[in-house]
Amino acid sequence: MADIQCKQIGPHCPADGSPLGYAPNVAASVIFVIIFNLSSICHLVQGWKYKTWSFMIAMLLGSSSEVVGYIGRILMHNNPYRLSTMLVYGEGIPRVKPVWYTRFFINCDIISLTLQGAGGGVASSATKHSTMELGNHLMLVGLIFQIVSLIFFALACIDFALRVRKYQSWKNPAYKKLRASMRFRGFLWALVVSFMTIFTRCVYRVVELGGGWNNRLMREETPFIILESCMITIAVFALIIFHPGFGFQNKFNNLEYESVSTIEQVGASKEGTSLMTVEQYQRST
User: Fold this and answer.
1) What is the pTM of this model?
2) Who contacts 77 (Cβ-Cβ below 8 Å, separation ≥6)?
3) What's residue 45's pLDDT?
4) Beta-carbon neighbour count of residue 151 at 10 Å?
5) How far apart are alpha carbons 61 and 248 in whole angstroms?
6) Do residues 156 and 104 lie in contact, with contact meaning Cβ atoms separated by under 8 Å?
7) Which Pfam families does the record associate with it (predicted)?
8) Are 85 and 23 in contact (CB under 8 A)?
9) How far apart, in whole angstroms, are the C-alpha atoms of residue 24 and residue 60?
């Protein structure tokens, strides 16, 4: 890599000597800015239509972050040395309460993104090689943590799927028709696609960063476009095509918990929990 004191492209500071190793392609970056802006609009419209507010906010934050990132790559085209310009089945089926899946994995995401963001900030403001390496290591730790949490998430989902198949009588009968619909199954497959593409992206970034700033993979833009840009694009649009509001048939935001008797589940009289819609709950009370 060229001297870290390089501030712009020049006779002694070629583009391939920058931390990136290339000048980001403007056309590709513009395309992905448009794509993620479009995804933001789609999620905004669908979130408003289906009133899936929390999901909408999460997807808007993700898409807008991608837009900011690609705008940064556009700005870096002329000077890549300037890095600084940048619950339907049934409550009794899971081994743990559904709410803890959300609490645990959301917190894992926050930790991972914080580490990656901190690492990116340190690397972009670095004035010497050691500081840039520190930023690189922070990002690497964040990505590895994300991969580990994704593996635990996948294992939890697989365990839940196996228990769904094993305990057929535990399923909430109120949602039998919904579970059988192509819209809901499409949503589940969209989650699988999103998981696989995001996991692929994370593995790529670990390999990329693991070799340091002189790693050949780090200094090639084509793998970045395929394994970063395209993977996230697929993940985002899979959840636009099979949006949860569409998949849950307008029931996504209308789920409440109600105590019921679950003798079949435990073989004895015991209080458990099942899901029902708000409308059902109001009619029963």
Assistant:
1) 0.68
2) 23, 24, 25, 26, 29
3) 92
4) 11
5) 22
6) no
7) RTA1
8) no
9) 25
Partners of 276 in beta bridges: 256
Q: Is the pLDDT of residue 226 over 90?
A: yes
The two structure tokens encoding residue 250: 């307008």
Q: Taking phi first (over 0 means left), then psi (-120 to 50 degrees means alpha), and beta for anything else, what does residue 13 get?
A: beta
* Side chain identity, residue 264: E
What 3-state class would DSSP assign to 277?
strand
Q: Which domain holds residue 45?
A: 15-250
Q: Retrieve residue 226's tokens.
A: 């395929």
Cβ neighbours, 10 Å, residue 259: 10
Regarding whether 272 and 218 lie in a shared domain, the answer is no
For a pLDDT cut of 90, what percent of the chain falls above it? Answer: 16
Query: Do 229 and 260 belong together in one domain?
Result: no
Domain count within the chain = 2
Contact criterion met (CB below 8 Å) for 140 and 210: yes
> Is residue 282 one of the residues assigned to a domain?
yes
Strand-pair partners of 271: 261
One domain, residues 102 and 136: yes
